[in-house]
Specification:
The protein is built from 13 helices and 3 strands. It is mainly α and about 350 residues long.
Length: about 350
């Protein structure tokens, strides 16, 4: 961090039911709900958490390593290759948004450096750390690896519905592979697929990414993992982390920086300056692009991206699964008194999610 800005990082302790915070620890000092500094400590901790979410899974993963690199690689493929056709709707505006965001936000001399508390090396450290964490696995497989798969909607709302969406992407990949690559042998023999995986693998920085995508694709399982992970990253992961930031920025923009001179007893003293608030609004205005919703009642606009001989029932079944997920998410919101508005928790309604990275 630059001089004059508070260092991020800390720990939050919760009750066993995960509904109440018992204390916040910042730089070795604990604050409980009865302390006059508690609201300020919670604000600082939350600001660091938002920076982690926006910087890591949103920017480095969804924008850079998933959307930007995949879009670059599929556009090197033959225009009529089935894999390029399937992923193309999920890449709308991806490069324009990421290029603009990189120039205005993360580059040397850009907004994070000029109006934030981060030194350029701090931003680079964040990029390296989240590149290290990248894995080519579906979200459902990620939950299994972390031991949080199969939890109920009450126990883990985001994970429960995100796992369902991940399986919907898995099923879309399976149905599509049945059309063009019915066997592992068909996958391994497809020169276009092998060229894509080689290009994608070679773009990953080897020193900082211990789990890059494989340089070849020999099985349907590998192709499914890549497809499902990409679709989830540019839709649910991107929108959920971005919406978290947007919601907090509407109130405080604290992820940009927290002044060191501010007192934890006085929230107003921790707020960013007017210039920093304007900078955040400038970021949103410069990088925001429109994209269609993930769910399409009439899939004809999606179908036109696919080859003319592609079975239209594939997309009809896919949209039917998304609609069922929408009804389940809506029912959960009603049952738990959650406001029925776009991107309200658990922020996984296919009608609200966009089909590609947009901001």
């Amino acid at each position: 961090m630059r001089p004059g800005y508070r260092t991020y990082g800390g720990a939050m302790y919760l009750t066993d039911d995960l509904k109440h915070v018992t204390k916040i620890v910042l730089q070795g000092t604990a604050y409980t709900p009865s302390d006059p500094e508690f609201a300020g400590a919670l604000y600082v901790f939350r600001s660091g958490g938002v920076y982690e979410a926006v910087g890591g899974p949103h920017t480095v993963h969804a924008h850079y390593l998933d959307a930007a690199l995949v879009t670059t690689c599929i556009r090197e493929m033959d225009a009529d290759h089935p894999f390029r056709r399937l992923l193309s709707p999920f890449t709308i505006a991806s490069l324009a948004v990421t290029f603009g965001a990189n120039l205005s936000i993360a580059n040397d001399g850009a907004i994070l450096e000029r109006f934030g508390g981060f030194q350029p090396e701090g931003v680079k450290m964040m990029v390296r750390e989240w590149t290290k964490r990248w894995r080519m696995e579906s979200f459902a497989d990620q939950l299994k690896r972390k031991g949080t798969a199969g939890l109920s909607a009450e126990a883990y709302p985001y994970g429960h519905f995100a796992e369902k969406l991940s399986y919907i992407f898995d099923k879309l990949a399976d149905d599509y592979m049945d059309e063009y690559w019915p066997t592992d042998k068909d996958v391994a023999a497809d020169a276009g697929l092998q060229a894509f995986f080689k290009s994608y693998h070679d773009l990953f920085p080897k020193k900082t990414c211990p789990n890059p995508p494989p340089p070849t694709c020999a099985t349907r399982a590998t192709l499914r993992s890549m497809t499902s992970r990409f679709m989830f990253a540019v839709t649910a992961q991107h929108e959920q982390t971005g919406n978290t930031a947007d919601s907090l920025l509407a109130y405080d923009a604290g992820f940009v920086s927290v002044p060191a001179h501010g007192s934890l007893k006085d929230l107003a003293s921790l707020q960013p300056s007017k210039q920093q608030r304007v900078a955040v609004q400038y970021i949103q205005g410069l990088t925001s692009k429109h994209a269609p919703s993930l769910y399409q009642a009439d899939p004809k606009d999606f179908q036109r991206f696919l080859l003319p001989d592609c079975d239209p029932s594939i997309l009809k079944r896919y949209m039917a699964r998304l609609w069922r997920l929408h009804t389940e998410v809506s029912g959960f919101k009603v049952a738990h008194g959650i406001e029925l508005r776009p991107m309200s928790a658990p922020a996984l309604d296919p009608i609200d999610l966009k089909i590609a990275v947009t901001v």
